[in-house]
Design goal:
heterodimer, A: 2 domains, 8 strands, B: Four Helix Bundle (Hemerythrin (Met), subunit A), Rossmann fold, 8-stranded mixed beta sheet, 20 helices
Chain lengths: ~325, ~450
């Protein structure tokens, strides 16, 4: 397991003692205000339909989605009735509890296996933050004493290779690239190189693709097959990188990539903005793929493990 | 989502059948469905509320013409309101200034600014015959400058070098000076992605704006963005005098709810939509067509335009010649068609643009359909070139051979030949009456197509 996920090894982490919770809270302050603004005015009132309607709106505005919001509201209504609750304030812990129960199963940090190398494939739509995530993760792994190799599998986007090479230089880790050729060929090469050099972890970048671009979805399946040819037990992890700003389309992304590749985890990026990432609740309900990391800022130490309780606290407090 | 809204409205239309007047009570249920569908399309809640109120006001008391069902009347009202919300008509890029006309790109990280800058340069160069200069002021993301450089080289468009040690506003001023001295018509300035709440970065882009006096300041938005789109758009709109919006990644099932939200909040027109990572993937935004598409009325116009773009010209012309000459449409052509369909995003992407009335019952499972496309291709591949040109040759023994070769049953081969015969008939119709006749024939089936 990654030690850094438990301790705070980087010196800069001391500057922000509250770690990702603090950062996330800062980012989510606005959403809390929104939830508070939506709910606050009726806290003094008895629970009634209008109150539940406001709560539903607040959840929808946090990208929780119509279906999951309705489900949560139904659950809360029943609890309110069963426990004869009269004040909205009493429902707050129950709402939190319901969300935590939904999200807790996704709280599983990434584990680097003893496979040599442990191969992690990064996939996702365009602009989700795959290359940046790889750059940051490489740094963390090195701090933990792992040897790392990067594979520049995005052979489509202009200068994507240069971007990864620049991350490689920054972290002083080797980057396998090819002048021309497809992702599969680059990754095959990279795995061979990692084996030859006795490197422990391969982080493999791929080009961005939308689930509706079926030929590209077919291509990524091929990439996986080729990786399996290079190493029968690989890829040991397939991580979908998801932009926290995404709305209900995030569900479609998880569904499509999971169907195509059998994902082992998610990385949620850009959670430091004003978006609430409530769609994670919808994902937890429909496709509970573990969340391995969350990105809460631009700095390297801002790639953190996901904690359901902290996330919900920041969202609902 | 597109199908969902269509499905929902189809259901609602049924429930409204037989009512002669739209009233508060009979449209209540219908509007609830519209609300859910819009929310699932990531249209921001405040925008949905305003929208629903507007539709309700307009709908109540409308009497239903004898030729229409109440459902159709309501759909008509929703369609008009959607179109209005998105801005009535396409608004073109404004370049009417003393050259160089400066275009400043702004947006969140990963929204697609750099790719869109490249697409826009191509569009300006090829559609408008402009001399374009590209410059990147993104001194933060590794290789962002290099990315624009590569795009410029691919497009054979001029590029102004910059590097990480420079201040963005210094880069901008130098590029503007260069554009003036080299008589460029347009200068496109790409910028780093930034959060609307990042004050230092927002201040930086304000300085860029002050230094450049751009005639167009375009806000680049990811079509998949959720409810927060209103907040980001508002913040960017307050910090910068935006002149327009470009909606990116609007492929296939991308919902584009952000289009409605952003337009509503900024009151600035969506000028272009970006589809795909290929540099040709930039289209003028047509609110009316988008509204039709959202309502499942089909966006036949865009489908035809898209076909023009993605279909290989040479191949298409060859086919057209063949049909004109009365030479039949053969299996080889059929295969080419299948491949081009895949290129255009598969069946799903096309279905999205066809009227719901036509697609209902079809495309039950997209994945299965894609697989059957591959099977058909396999069967055709198992035939000899002569057989492909003259499918009549395929009798029992040949069929057996083809079936074994493709790893399918003879029945499947027969089914394909049957489908192919149908298609041939359609092609004959096309060659006799032309596309216009076929469209006229379809008109009865498609609401909203006049």
């Amino acid at each position: 397991m990654f030690g850094f996920l438990k301790k705070s090894p980087s010196p800069t982490a001391d500057v922000v003692p509250s770690g990702w919770i603090g950062r996330l809270s800062a980012g989510l302050r606005k959403s809390r205000q929104r939830l508070a603004a939506g709910v606050g005015g009726i806290f003094a009132r008895k629970l009634d339909d209008a109150w539940f309607e406001s709560l539903e709106e607040a959840l929808i505005e946090a990208d929780v989605g119509v279906k999951t919001s309705a489900h949560l509201i139904l659950q809360l209504r029943q609890q309110a009735r069963g426990q004869r609750l009269e004040h909205a304030q009493d429902l707050k812990p129950l709402l939190k509890q319901a969300l935590v129960e939904l999200l807790q199963p996704l709280e599983k940090p990434l584990e680097v296996t003893t496979h040599s190398p442990h191969i992690i494939l990064f996939v996702g739509v365009n602009g989700a933050g795959k290359t940046t995530t790889i750059g940051k993760l490489a740094q963390h792994l090195i701090q933990q004493g792992h040897s790392v190799l990067l594979a520049a599998g995005d052979t489509f986007r202009a200068a994507a290779v240069a971007q990864l090479v620049s991350w490689g230089e920054r972290n002083q880790v080797p980057v396998i690239t090819q002048e021309k050729g497809d992702s599969a060929a680059v990754l095959f090469d990279a795995i061979a190189a990692a084996k030859a050099r006795g490197i422990q972890v391969v982080l493999a970048d791929t080009a961005g693709r939308l689930p509706t671009q079926l030929h590209l979805m077919e291509e990524i399946r091929k990439v996986k097959r080729v990786v399996q040819k290079a190493d029968a037990s690989a890829p040991h992890d397939i991580l979908l990188v998801l932009d926290a700003n995404t709305g209900q389309n995030a569900l479609a992304q998880v569904r499509a990539f999971d169907d195509a590749l059998q994902l082992t985890g998610l990385v949620i990026t850009k959670l430091d903005g004003t978006a609430r990432g409530g769609v994670l609740a919808a994902i937890a309900g429909e496709r509970p793929v573990p969340i391995r990391f969350v990105g809460v800022g631009e700095a390297l130490e801002d790639l953190q493990r996901f904690g359901a309780q902290e996330f919900v606290d920041a969202l609902v407090e | 989502m597109l199908e969902q809204l269509t499905d929902r409205l189809t259901g609602v239309i049924k429930s409204l059948r037989g009512q002669s007047r739209l009233s508060d009570s009979n449209i209540q249920e219908a509007l609830r469905e519209v609300r859910i569908a819009l929310l699932e399309a990531d249209v921001a809640l405040p925008v949905v509320k305003t929208f629903i109120d507007e539709v309700r006001q307009e709908a109540i008391g409308q009497s239903v013409l004898t030729s229409l069902t109440p459902g159709q009347v309501l759909v008509g009202i929703v369609h008009q309101a959607l179109t209005r919300l998105m801005g009535e008509k396409n608004e073109a890029l404004d370049l009417a200034t003393q050259p160089p006309a400066v275009i400043l790109m702004a947006g969140l990280q990963g929204s697609g600014k750099t790719t869109t800058s490249g697409k826009l340069a191509k569009w300006l160069k090829e559609q408008q015959r402009k001399k374009v200069l590209l410059v990147s002021c993104d001194v933060y993301r590794p290789a962002a400058i290099e990315q624009l450089h590569v795009l410029a080289q691919t497009l054979e468009v001029d590029w102004f070098p910059s590097d990480l040690s420079q201040a963005p506003s210094a880069i901008a001023r130098a590029a503007l000076d260069h554009a003036r001295r080299h008589y460029h018509d347009v200068l496109i300035v790409d910028t780093a992605g930034r959060l609307a709440i990042d004050e230092a970065m927002m201040h930086e882009i304000q300085q860029l704006h002050a230094a450049l006096h751009p005639i167009e300041t375009l806000f680049v938005v990811d079509a998949m963005q959720g409810q927060d789109a209103v907040n980001t758009a508002r913040a960017f709109g307050e910090a910068l005098p935006l002149t327009g919006v470009i909606l990116t990644k609007l492929d296939g099932d991308a919902r584009g709810g952000a289009a409605l939200s952003v337009r509503h909040v900024t009151q600035k027109p969506v000028k272009f939509i970006g589809v795909g990572e290929k540099l040709t993937g930039l289209e003028a935004f047509h609110p009316e067509r988008m509204a039709s598409r959202i309502l499942g009325m089909g966006d036949v116009l865009s489908l035809i335009e898209e076909a023009h773009r993605t279909v290989d010209r040479v191949e298409a012309e060859k086919l057209a010649q063949k049909i004109k000459k009365g030479q039949g449409f053969d299996l080889e052509d059929f295969k080419t068609q299948l491949q081009q369909m895949k290129k255009a995003g598969g069946i799903g992407a096309m279905m999205d643009k066809l009227p719901a009335q036509l697609t209902r019952g079809m495309a039950v499972n997209q994945a299965v359909d894609e697989r059957s496309l591959n099977r058909i291709e396999g069967i055709i591949n198992a035939m000899t070139p002569t057989e492909r040109r003259h499918p009549d040759l395929l009798k029992a023994s040949r069929k057996r051979r083809v079936a074994t070769g493709a790893g399918v049953s003879v029945q499947e081969v027969n089914r394909l030949l049957g489908q192919f015969e149908q298609m041939q008939k359609m092609m004959k119709m096309l060659s006799k009456g032309g596309l216009g006749k076929m469209m006229r024939g379809m008109k009865g089936m498609i609401p909203g197509l006049h």
